[in-house]
Amino acid sequence: MKIVIIGNGVAGTFSAQNIRNLDKDVSIHLYSKENYPYYTRIKLPQLISEQVTISDLIVFNKNWYVKNNIELNLNSEIKKIDTLHKQVFLNNNSLPIHYDKLILATGSLPNIPPIKNAKKFLRNGVFTLRSIQDALDIKNFIVSKKVQRVIIIGGGLLGLELAKQIKNRDLDTTIVEFFPRLLPKQLDFDCGTLLKEEIESMGINVILDAATEEILSEQEVITGILIKNGTKIDADLVLIQAGIRPTIDLAVEAGIKCNRGIIVNQYLETSMKNVFAVGDCIEYNEQTWGIIPACMEQAKIVASTVLGKRDKAYKGTIPKNTLKIIGIDLTSIGLFDPSDKDLVGAGWEILKNIDKKSKCYKKIVLKNKKLKGAILFGGKKAVPYISKNIESEINEDELRKVVELFKWRCKNCNYVYDDAKNDILFKELPDDWKCKCDSPKTMFERNPDNI
Asked: Do 8 and 30 form a contact (C-beta atoms < 8 A)?
């Protein structure tokens, strides 16, 4: 059996690896339009700041593909799929490539908002970052044009990581975010505020609640941006990191059912027989993911399915994001901000503490004793426990020990001071603090239920 995989990113590469682990004889052919074997995109911003080299990014070199008997075809863009005759066609070769099973791992592309002149100046003062070539082009532009001022449109994970590396080049750096807080998909307002302060302490300017209307220019050279409220911000370079969108063009042209992404069932099968899809390009149950954990999980399932086994079914992936900026420990997992409507009489409970002095934020979301989500800022000690137990019923006392949010009981009047319901931890209260019954701190004991 010949399996053709289109795409050499996380989803495509690990689909190939998992197939090979399950079957030593099946023929696997990987096609990628890029010039490099599988590399990590997480460190692409560091390529711009020259903290890493291209070789540092490569995860699997060519020897790995040879060892695993996977035929890797680089600089080979598939332009057409013929599902009737089970063939694909390269951009530089009219001869068809036959397949028995086809896996679409076409990934995603950077989303470019409807900003006037953005596409006009793309790759000439306006860039997105998604590949090694993008990073090299940005770095070369900075050097050749002697760039001094850079605007990053988008305050998501990629935007923040990119801003830090641009700042590392000693350039004036400004983040412009459409939403009223940074990381709107990962953080609530309180933690977003703490993160903004931390980012600004690095010398990076942050402008929130700002919709970019136009890329400004003079004599075909960009000079900055115009925000819809009329504010102009000067810049020599604009980097757009405003999310991603699934790459579905090939699938659409082949008549495969698509919406935002390529629609798949729980076994990662598309609407066409013998055609499967995995990774950023898919849509399952009206949801797309665009995160590495989802790609890894889906790759295991599609490997099993493509070999004729239906022993694994996809149920979706719980979002987990960790900020990679040096000096910041920030993790967001699962449902972190249920609405007030959801909370009313629905079994929800939130354990939360904001320590502005130590720049630490902890928020745990529970429903009927099940761990539904968390935000942990300023520490990573509890991350393994939270990751392991997400969507599981947990012992609240055990959880409180792990996240160090305790209840303290006054021995005199039994008043309980709950770390998770107050901004200041009990241990951080002033020594002269007193209970409502006038008892000193020394009259409090940590609730035995939490020990």
From this structure: yes
